[in-house]
Every structure is written in structure tokens, then in C-alpha cells.
């Protein structure tokens, strides 16, 4: 899966959003994807949603707790960025060196993630050059995913197992 991704795209210094799911622990597909992307010199931003905070910050649903387990799983430091969109997220990702990893705060803390899928996708697209989905799509409606795929300046990076499932 990621062999094709890293071979087909010039990733050094590019930013890749990797949509993850932490609902069943640390997914091997996520850790392998992050490893391959960082080995290719990409700046990797892991994004995920957790719980149903209805657009409000809830410390119990923060993704901060996943930064250390993710770092252990991928074998390199993971920077936690306390925002998932906007100026803080952009600044945090701009500070990453090629091959570094960041975990962004819970996407669902943004009310636009549900309400205004296109504008939320536009805000996410400002952060990256590529987008990868590593696991099953969320049960909670995430209409921003197809919108994000359409907005990025490069074609989306979709693992082959997901392409087969959607056909």
C-alpha cells in the first residue's frame, strides 16, 4: 500500500495528512504508513476524530493522550499540535522538518466538521499536499473527506484496500 504511495509521489518536504482511527487501538496500517512516509521525507500530520464533543473542546476526548503511544509505535517523536485547523495548526506543521510527525487535536472539536463539510475540508486542505486514509471511514458522518480529496492540489493517496471497498 504505502510502497506504491512513496514510489509514485515526490514526498520529500511535502505535507501529508493521514486520517487515522484510534477507536481500536494503534492500527498497524497507520503505523506502517507513517513510517514509510517519514522515511520518504514527508512531514506527516495525523488527524482523527474521537467521541462526539459536538464542536466543543472536551479534555477527556483530546488526542494528546495518543501522541506517546503513536511515537512508540512509529519509532520517532510525535509533536502534538493543539489545533486541527487554522493558524495554530498551520504554524505547528510549518515548524516540522522533513520526516517529522505531528498529531493534530481532535477534528470533532470543530463544529464545521459536521455542519459545513466543504468549508472544513477547505481549511484542512490548506495544511497539506496529500491525503491518506489508513483505516475504515468513521461511523459518524464525515462528509468533509470527499470534499478534502477534491480540494487538495495533488491527487489523494488512497490505500488500495479502500479503493476496492468503495468500488
Describe the fold and architecture.
By secondary structure, the chain is of the alpha/beta class. It has a single domain (about 1-160), classed as Phosphoglycerate kinase, N-terminal domain (Rossmann fold). Helices cover about 40% and strands about 15% of the residues. A five-stranded parallel sheet has the order 3-4-2-1-5, sandwiched between helices. The longest helix has 12 residues, at about 30-40.
Q: In sequence order, what are the helices and strands, one letter per element?
A: HEHEHEHEHHEHH
How does the helix and strand content classify structurally?
alpha/beta
Sequence of strands across the biggest β-sheet: 3-4-2-1-5
Percent helix, as a range, is 25-40%
Residue stretches low in confidence (pLDDT < 50, at least 5 long) are: 158-167
**Number of domain modules:** 1
Beta-strand content bin: 5-15%
The CATH topology, please?
Rossmann fold
CATH class: Alpha Beta
Give the SSE layout:
Elements (H helix, E strand, L loop, with lengths): L1 H7 L6 E5 L8 H12 L3 E5 L19 H8 L3 E4 L5 H8 L6 E4 L7 H4 L1 H9 L4 E4 L10 H8 L8 H7 L1
Parallel strand pairs: 1-2, 1-5, 2-4, 3-4
Helix pairs in contact: 1-2, 6-7
Main attributes?
167 residues, alpha/beta, Rossmann fold, 38% helix, disordered C terminus
Amino acid at each position: 500500500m504505502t510502497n506504491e504511495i512513496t514510489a509514485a509521489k515526490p514526498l520529500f518536504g511535502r505535507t501529508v495528512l493521514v486520517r487515522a482511527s484510534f477507536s481500536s487501538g494503534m492500527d498497524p496500517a497507520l503505523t506502517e504508513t507513517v513510517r514509510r512516509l517519514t522515511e520518504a521525507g514527508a512531514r506527516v500530520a495525523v488527524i482523527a476524530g474521537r467521541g462526539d464533543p459536538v464542536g466543543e473542546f472536551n479534555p477527556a476526548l483530546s488526542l494528546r493522550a495518543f501522541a506517546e503511544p503513536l511515537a512508540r509505535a512509529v519509532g520517532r517523536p510525535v509533536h502534538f499540535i493543539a489545533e486541527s485547523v487554522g493558524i495554530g495548526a498551520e504554524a505547528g506543521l510549518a515548524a516540522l522538518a522533513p520526516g517529522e510527525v505531528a498529531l493534530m487535536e481532535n477534528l470533532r472539536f470543530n463544529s464545521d466538521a459536521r455542519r459545513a463539510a466543504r468549508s472544513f475540508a477547505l481549511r484542512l486542505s490548506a495544511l497539506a499536499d496529500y491525503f491518506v486514509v489508513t483505516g475504515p471511514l468513521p461511523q459518524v458522518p464525515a462528509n468533509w473527506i470527499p470534499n478534502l480529496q477534491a480540494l487538495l492540489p495533488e491527487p489523494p493517496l488512497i490505500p488500495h484496500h479502500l479503493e476496492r471497498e468503495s468500488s
